[in-house]
Specification:
This protein has 1 helix and 5 strands. A hairpin with a 4-residue loop joins strand 1 and strand 2.
């Protein structure tokens, strides 16, 4: 498995993010995610879309994905 990630800040509390996973088993498979991350004092929230070759036939833009991370 190969993982590629990137993030770029748009402002102090907002970033663009992408996380991509590539599997190199018998058949090449990849999962691509892209979205926006909002930062708070003790929490961050990702609003993203997840896509791969199979999903893109039904959902061309991607499947919505929401992630919450709380620092405690």
């Amino acid at each position: 498995m190969i993982t590629l990630r990137a993030m770029t800040r748009l402002s102090r509390r907002v970033s663009l993010v992408t996380e991509n996973w590539f599997f190199t088993a018998d058949v090449y498979r990849g999962i691509i995610s892209y979205g926006i991350r909002f930062f708070g004092e003790t929490m961050s929230v990702d609003l993203a879309l997840v896509n791969n070759e199979e999903f893109s036939e039904v959902f061309p833009v991607g499947i919505p994905y929401v992630d919450f991370v709380v620092k405690f």
